[in-house]
Amino acid sequence: MDTLVIGNFNTQSPYFWIEEASLQLLPGAQQTVHIKFQPNDTLHFTDTLTIFNNDPVNYNQKISLEGTGIYAPAISLSPDSLVAQLKQNDSIDIPLTISNHGAGELIFTAQIGNYQPTLILPEGAGGNDSYGHIWIDSDESGGPQYDWIELGTGAGTLIPLSGLNSTSNAIPLGFTVSFYGEDYSTLRVCNNGWISFNTFSVSYNNTQLPSNLAPRALIAALWDNLIMQSDSRVYYLQDTTRFIVQWENLYTVTGYGPYTFQLLVFKNGNFVLQYETLTNLEDAYTVGMQNHSANDGFHIAYNEPYLHNNMAILITKRSWISLNPVGGTVAPGSQMDMTVSLNSKNFPLGDFWAGVEIFSNDPQAPHRLIPIHMKVDSILTGISGIQEIPRNYQLYQNYPNPFNPTTTIRYGLNQPSNVRLTLFNLLGQEIRTLVNSRQEAGFQSMIWDGRDDTGRPVASGIYIYRLEANPISGNEKQFVNTRKMILMK
Questions:
Q1: Residue 245: phi, psi to the nearest 5?
Q2: In terms of Cα–Cα distance, which of 159, 220, 171, 167 is closest to 193?
């Protein structure tokens, strides 16, 4: 037995190809390669793929290929990112243009999505997670009003918890609440000062959030290593729009306390934390929340002086963004404006992030994400100098494609890099260098006019563009990616 060496994948026409140039497989191994099909007309195409290899019997294995061209749409979005600066209790409408450069009808839907930038700008007291939650406390202008709801007078139901690290069974909420995009109808309560929508973990060592060491689908009202003594109680109350948990007279294992506090879960996805009595509060707790995967969340406080008596904290969802319309159809060569509305009502000062997710029937770009950055400030100074930063290196499909005479090539750099963007014909010959320089982190774009380095127009056909990005810092490996495009005259 020997290594299978595939020296070349060969097709007869430019409409079918495999990006892998060669391949080696150890005995018993297998690997999937993808055959690409990009027609230049609405016809039925046939071809033969020949796989040249060192198999002494099937050394030129042949596979028949067939494909039918359709009138495909080609989506483009402008601008590439949305940035706005607002005062508190302000609003703004921003147009997002959805264009169809293809030959087929573009059908799309839109929703508010997650976006977490690599570059985190300074946050105010109410900074958010990538899902778009924000928080504000009763000490802030426009914050919630402290309004204690006493459950220990017979209004609430006693939860049978005792001692250390005690967690309840699942308790019905009485409604369904959305938490980080998941729907939950029950929760569990732990005497360590937190609730979870789907776990019975009894982690007592508090940590920063998000964290794999923390309980999943978590809201931590006052997460510490707490113990229930003879006067300690935990209650709950449910109605049609809210669910309340009250921890009464809890103590730390080190002797601090008692602490009395509560959590309100609202059907609309908002949460309120309230603190009635925090006697001799030890600054060794966590307040915050995280999702089920422990990869999105935030802490309001971690091992620091923050909470005090008669305090309330409001955590709200992404109600600061709305889209209109949330779907539609765009004819070939046409465009449609979507209105992205941002609202800073009751927001603290700081920077807030989310995104517009566009799902469409464009076979080259079925999913697009437009980052949104809202900066809430007391003084409007302008933020035109802020550069949105992608999370990873990206090379996007050119648009329009097919094209004549020009097309735009977009790419994203997550850090300063030495960049080379080059164009090749199908023979592998370099015909044009569009970029060969250092560029800063951010989203970039270049226009190709269908000419080579000498200024002469090139012929119709399929061309390859390749992005090479070498990080200046040297902390990441070189990024190299290629895509194909069609020039039709």
A1: -115, 135
A2: 220
Q: Which of 266, 287, 316 is the last residue of a domain?
A: 316
Identify whether residues 28 and 44 lie together within a single domain.
yes
CA trace torsion 153, 155, 159, 162 (10° rounding): -10
The model's pLDDT over 362-403, given as tens digits with 9 standing for 90+, comes to 887 888 888 888 888 877 655 444 455 676 788 887 877 788
Determine the Cα–Cα distance for residues 209 and 301; give it in Å rounded to an integer: 10
Global pTM value: 0.57
CA 141 to chain CA centroid, nearest Å: 30
Looking at the 3D structure of the chain, how many domains does it have? 4
Q: What is the CATH number of the domain that holds 479?
A: 2.60.40.4070
Distance CA 120, CA 134 (A): 15
CB atoms within 10 A of CB 424: 16
Q: What is the number of other CB atoms lying within 10 angstroms of the CB of residue 77?
A: 20
Q: For residue 462, what are the contacts with CB-CB under 8 A and spacing of at least 6?
A: 14, 15, 38, 426, 484, 485, 486
- The residue range of the domain holding 41 is 4-68
Q: Is the peptide bond before 56 cis (omega within 30 degrees of 0)?
A: no
Residues 330 and 343 in one domain: yes
